[in-house]
Amino acid sequence: xxxxxxxxxxxxxxxxxxxxxxxxxxxxxxxxxxxxxxxxxxxxxxxxxxxxxxxxxxxxxxxxxxxxxxxxxxxxxxxxxxxxxxxxxxxxxxxxxxxxxxxxxxxxxxxxxxxxxxxxxxxxxxxxxxxxxxxxxxxxxxxxxxxxxxxxxxxxxxxxxxxxxxxxxxxxxxxxxxxxxxxxxxxxxxxxxxxxxxxxxxxxxxxxxxxxxxxxxxxxxxxxxxxxxxxxxxxxxxxxxxxxxxxxxxxxxxxxxxxxxxxxxxxxxxxxxxxxxxxxxxxxxxxxxxxxxxxxxxxxxxxxxxxxxxxxxxxxxxxxxxxxxxxxxxxxxxxxxxxxxxxxxxxxxxxxxxxxxxxxxxxxxxxxxxxxxxxxxxxxxxxxxxxxxxxxxxxxxxxxxxxxxxxxxxxxxxxxxxxxxxxxxxxxxxxxxxxxxxxxxxxxxxxxxxxxxxxxxxxxxxxxxxxxxxxxxxxxxxxxxxxxxxxxxxxxxxxxxxxxxxxxxxxxxxxxxxxxxxxxxxxxxxxxxxxxxxxxxxxxxxxxxxxxxxxxxxxxxxxxxxxxxxxxxxxxxxxxxxxxxxxxxxxxxxxxxxxxxxxxxxxxxxxxxxxxxxxxxxxxxxxxxxxxxxxxxxxxxxxxxxxxxxxxxxxxxxxxxxxxxxxxxxxxxxxxxxxxxxxxxxxxxxxxxxxxxxxxxxxxxxxxxxxxxxxxxxxxxxxxxxx
Length: 723
Ligand code: Q9C
Ligand code: ZN
Fold this sequence. Notes:
Elements: E1 2-6, H1 26-38, E2 46-47, H2 55-59, H3 64-71, H4 79-86, H5 98-117, E3 121-126, H6 148-160, E4 165-169, H7 176-181, E5 188-195, E6 222-227, H8 234-252, E7 256-261, H9 278-288, E8 296-300, H10 306-320, H11 337-350, E9 361-363, H12 365-369, E10 383-384, H13 406-422, E11 430-436, H14 446-449, E12 453-454, H15 470-481, E13 484-491, H16 495-508, E14 514-518, H17 526-529, E15 537-543, H18 546-549, E16 562-567, H19 573-591, E17 595-600, H20 610-620, E18 628-633, H21 643-653, H22 662-665, H23 671-684, E19 696-698, E20 707-710, E21 713-716, H24 718-722
Parallel strand pairs: 1-2, 1-3, 3-8, 4-5, 4-7, 5-6, 7-8, 9-19, 11-12, 11-13, 13-18, 14-15, 14-17, 15-16, 17-18
Antiparallel strand pairs: 10-21, 20-21
Helix pairs in contact: 1-10, 5-6, 8-9, 8-11, 8-19, 9-10, 15-16, 19-20, 19-23, 20-21
């Protein structure tokens, strides 16, 4: 199963006839295709035939006027008339080709989604214009005429009976139209990250703020993540993914994901003034590919810096094709204060609807009344709106696009050149290496193991003084040499063997740093003491080691180089994912290891499913270019379950991994595990800046009654609460 792509060369025709400085211009489309061509991506995709949307498809979400008004412009060659009509809409120009191309953009998006649902392709990308997410029921807006993504989602609901669709909108502008269309529909979870500046950012709407969470049955299924400052970058966005989007997405358990993929939050874009690096879009994409059985449709929206647009879009497509995620060139750090505020505000309004957010600590109404008790870690959500609610009769049509100062533009362009030149595009010959001391007990897996590259089990060169495990050293060699991207070893995984191989990777193979993650229910805590002083090795364990250390080891006694999460054996999938998103991934992204070694059980025990284990492995492949070695203990018992091992091989091979079961996603978080996670975050955020969410919020759920509207800021009013 492959990756599809849909585009139509005619999409370069649509342009503004009276102002060539418009940033939504043909080169956006041309350059994206050109970059995909250069990276030889298009030839690897299944090309889908673009087609026009039908009236029936459009009329599900748009009024008949939306068709007729645009249709009537097809034959207008009078520029003045076109400009006059365009001025009735907020940020828009119309060209005689616009009607047909808008139909093509919408129809091609439906085509992409239906090919995914037919199983003809696993995932894919629509490289299209005009974009769609501002096109409302009865109003064109923001370069958009028909809402491509929404129309495709509606098609999946109506014609394919889908029950859960996730729309992720990472365009810098709020897709207000998509929000409006599914605001009351719990079948469509709309998640948008956008510039807001408390309403000073286009489209200046109150409804773009975080407390617009849906209506009726759709409450909790509309999620806005408004950014109130410019220059937000990878650390801010990845924190939003780890703290909000991914936990919620796993709980929602979508059957399909559609991305409104604008690249206007990328570094260099004059519209967004944000700083996401092109490679970060690979990380966004890969992190969504484990969901929905891999059914992911990426649909182009905005993006106005040609260089970061084309690079970001091409890297997205490359990731859909299964190539490794290029490591981010700078390790992640603390999200900005403003991004932290946004994330906490979103958690605050949504925690009633999503179990994964119920780790948020609250303080009581009694404490709130006693204002003197307000402590440092208490967080007060506020709402501020600086926009205006008035709408003009006509909108300006010329010289309205932001222009960069030439010096700034040159500086950004140079930064992008450095980033692009530094992006690792290596692809290893084999995706998964496999080595085992004996394969007798894993015969039931032979089919899947045949798809791996067999590594030798013996070696002549042992490396200075290393006599222990030939298979582990061979595996590490193949990853460091670049023969295999990732690998599996089955054999002895006891403490000194693992220690020896980690040291080998660093001392003999010159890796700068390595992360070891012990996911076994009985982790080997001995190992960490071998590295206590070694800043090149980071030890992390997931489960509590209750056997000999007792409660002391729950939630970690720690240094920066040992992160012991301390989950309970009785915990479930939600708890494991919580530990992953709130601790392991942020810490790993800050550490930036060149290799990750995971020790795992053949099959997870307790309440944790093997699907969950597969998802964890998949999510870890975003790091270090997917250079992941997973080691299992050789088990002589032929009847033992190998479900964890099997799903791990599948995840590394890039097969779609089964979703978590409802038992996995619908459970309350385990209280002891949550407090263990809290403890780790509390202790470790002194070392790891990326862990910064240990705060309390008020235990009330309404933003209006106990709040007062004080000028433009809506804030908590202790007096109103008395009544
Ligand atoms: N100074 C899309 O990205 N720009 N549409 C407003 C005000 C509006 C964006 C700038 C840009 C519309 C699909
Ligand atoms: Zn945009």
